[in-house]
Write a structure and sequence with these properties.
- The complex is a heterodimer.
- By secondary structure, chain A is an all-beta fold.
- Chain B contains no helices and eleven strands.
- The chains are: A mainly beta, B mainly beta.
- Chains A and B meet through strand 4, strand 5, strand 9 and strand 10 of A and strand 4, strand 5, strand 9 and strand 10 of B.
């Protein structure tokens, strides 16, 4: 099956610093990747759609300057949380799909804690 | 936008019991998937089922696209089945929209 890997699995950072999260498709090429955010005991909320070689498309209410997304290759998308604050603490999950595919595969998630 | 409703929100089962989880969606969809989120947060693909019926071991799923619902059946539940079950749909444009989930706890 398709494997999507996220790194790091967890990170603690100080308020005001930036954190980068990587999402890699290990055994397939992914033209499109997605970033989700999940608060405790809640569902996954789509933050943005990341397309290789072009700008990400952000969902309404998501600050594009706060959450920088780069999709520089067909196997890697990155999410950078800039000037992180405690309210940015959350579980971030990426997903990817085969180019031309229909099924979404998810990474293991990154738990971000901002102190 | 499309609404995805899952029921029940919470479910407690005795080990060995059967259960049915439901997912209703408010508009036509291109794709539908069921996921199990384990206690560590990992989303595990259970079924890709935009229509029809599929079975995988103790789990099976049925989607009736024309009536806009999908069902996930768990038979002979085990403690390792505990976690959150999400239904996720793709209304179009490759976005996957999640329901609120059903939180399942299976008692030994």
């Amino acid at each position: 099956g398709a494997v999507v890997s996220q790194h790091p699995s967890w990170v603690i950072c100080k308020s005001g610093t930036s954190v980068k999260i990587e999402c890699r498709s290990l055994d397939f090429q992914a033209t499109t990747m997605f970033w989700y955010r999940q608060f405790p005991k809640q569902s996954l909320m789509l933050m943005a759609t990341s397309n290789e070689g072009s700008k990400a498309t952000y969902e309404q209410g998501v600050e594009k300057d706060k959450f920088l997304i780069n999709h520089a290759s067909l196997t890697l998308s990155t999410l950078t949380v800039t000037s992180a604050h405690p309210e940015d603490s959350s579980f971030y999950i990426c997903s990817a799909r085969y180019t031309g595919g229909t099924e979404a595969f998810f990474g293991q998630g990154t738990r971000l804690t901002v102190v | 936008g499309i609404q995805v409703e899952q029921s029940p929100p919470d479910l407690i089962l005795q080990e060995g019991a059967n259960s049915t989880l439901r997912c209703n969606f408010s508009d036509s969809v291109n794709n539908l998937q069921w996921f199990h989120q384990n206690p560590w947060g990992q989303l595990i693909n259970l079924f890709y089922i935009p229509s029809g019926t599929k079975q995988n071991g103790r789990l099976s799923a049925t989607t009736v696209a024309t009536e806009r619902y999908s069902l996930l059946y768990i038979s002979s539940s085990q403690t390792t089945d505990s976690g959150v079950y999400f239904c996720a749909v793709e209304p179009g444009g490759f976005k996957t929209i999640f329901g609120a989930g059903t939180r399942l706890f299976v008692k030994a």
